[in-house]
Amino acid sequence: MDADKAYTEAIRHGRYSEQIKGLRCKYDHVRTQFEDFITKYYLRPYLEEIVKTKVDKSGESLRFYDLGCGTGDGYELLSKMARGTRLSQFDTRLVKDDMMDQYKGIDLSVSLLKEAENLFGDYEHVNFCKGDFSNGLPLDEGEESYDLYFTSYGTLSHCTNEELEKLFVDMGKHGHNGSLILADFIGRYSYEWQNLWTQDPEEVSYIDYVINYLYPEEERDNVELSSFPMRLMTPAEVFKVLESAARKAGVELKVLRFFDRSLFVGRHIETGTYNGNPQNLRLMVSSLFERGLRTYFPDLKVNYKPREGFDWQNESLQRLADSWNALVDYTMVLMEHYDSNEDLLPYPPPTDVKPLEKAYRVMRQTLEGSKGLYGDIRADLIEAQLGYAIRSLEMNLQQGHGLGHGLVGIIQVVK
Ligand SMILES: C[S@@+](CC[C@H](N)C(=O)[O-])C[C@H]1O[C@@H](n2cnc3c(N)ncnc32)[C@H](O)[C@@H]1O
Question: Mind listing the pLDDT tens digit for each residue in 268-302?
């Protein structure tokens, strides 16, 4: 119920539901260009396989179940997923409306469901209803299985271990052979809550989560907001629940992969609510994607402060921070040389970090190729490319160990 109150406050405040691409709101550029993209990127190959066998070969249509659907963002995400990237192609959607038999979204919050209904309720195959997944998977009598049981943005962290296990048992039983479960949690070792890191996961299981990040810094401490518990997760903890659930359901719940999402751009990187080293990194990265707006690059660099006793976490995060900062530095150098009208822009420093090597190459190519183009090429082209390059570093230097704001597992039901 606390969670319901907290989401309702966020809606009342307005910023949680605005469909604007502003810089500090629910749909900021990090959400659309980083987070939604990363989820789609990892889910796509598995969904593509289902589309091939079920739609292309057998002429059947797809069924999606979105648990904790909120305002129906899952429908938007799934229906806008791209199949290929051929430039000459116009409509690249993987799942077109006529391929969908049903998208069902459930949520506890009536206010969010009302908004979902306003946005997507007109589609015949879309259906929203109030439902609670804390007592297992809400189902109607004889309800057919789904191809994908979908969750997003940490939704499954609302569950206790027992609730989660029951939910996995139900999805395992209800799903058919090949059904997918997208299990989205809050990562245990996100830098955003470094103060909560513990060696023994049993010591701290939950974060007392507060949605204060939508407020400007100066207002943040003066508003009274509800908080609610969110389960912090590592892959090992998810595996443990899955193993037990699979045994009880009599199926295999096969983990296809885990990925970390938002290692330095999670919502709480800026608040300092659970970390003594807040930085406006999300805002800065969002600004890279804002057309017509130039970003102050020195503020884009990560000032990673290690926490003693957490060696593997520090190593991984420092490695990403170093590559990220080196790329920002190199881009600044490129821009200076560009301004001096030099014929040849400087080559990047040597590195054995492959994703960084590629990111360097892309930035150099972007500046080389941008000479003589129209518009504010820094704001609209170079910065956007730097945003994508940083995203690619994040994606290629993560290993799905629970170091991001989000820890996501893609799980398959095998029968
Ligand atoms: C992190 S939000 C995600 C919302 C949305 N899917 C999105 O992409 O923005 C989690 C959602 O789960 C809902 N929720 C939390 N506990 C729930 C429960 N036990 N049953 C159903 N919905 C729940 C909340 O109301 C909230 O809308």
Answer: 999 999 999 999 999 999 999 999 999 999 999 99
Report the nearest atom of ligand 1 relative to the CA of 26: 9
Average pLDDT over every residue of 208-235: 88
Residue pair 6/227 in contact by the 8 Å Cβ criterion:
yes
- Helix extents (H) in 208-234: 217-220
| For the CA of 77, the nearest atom of ligand 1 | 8
Q: Is the pLDDT of residue 13 over 60?
A: no
pLDDT tens for each residue of 365-412: 999 999 999 999 999 999 999 999 999 999 999 999 999 999 999 999
Q: Tell me, in angstroms, the distance from the centre of ligand 1 to residue 107's CA.
A: 6
| 258, 411 contact by CB (below 8 A) | no
Rounded distance from Cα 398 to ligand 1 centre (Å): 26
User: Domain ranges in the chain?
Assistant: 2-263+400-414, 281-396
**E strand or H helix at 265:** none
DSSP characters over 74-124: HHHHHHT-BS---TT-S--BSS-GGGEEEEEEEES-HHHHHHHHHHHTTST
State which of 2, 5, 108 you would mutate to test the pocket of ligand 1, scoring each by most atoms of that ligand within 8 A of its C-beta: 108
Ligand 1 centroid to residue 132 C-alpha, Å: 9
The residues, any chain, with a CB within 8 Å of residue 63's CB and separated by 6 or more, are: 100, 101, 102, 103, 104, 144, 145, 146, 147, 148
What are the beta bridge partners of residue 231? Answer: 206
Q: Which residues line ligand 1 at a C-beta cut-off of 6 Å?
A: 3-4, 7, 68-70, 73-74, 106-109, 112, 131-134, 152-155, 158
CB atoms inside a 10 Å sphere around CB 323: 23
Cα of 335 vs centre of ligand 1, distance in Å, is 43
CA–CA gap between residue 306 and residue 296 (Å, rounded): 25
- For domain 2-263+400-414, the CATH superfamily is Vaccinia Virus protein VP39 (3.40.50.150)
Give the position, in ligand 1's atom list, of the atom nearest the Cα of 7: 25
Q: CA 193: distance to chain centroid?
A: 17
Query: Do 282 and 265 meet the contact criterion of CB atoms below 8 Å apart?
Result: yes
pTM: 0.94
Q: Can you tell me whether residue 361 is helix, strand or coil?
A: helix
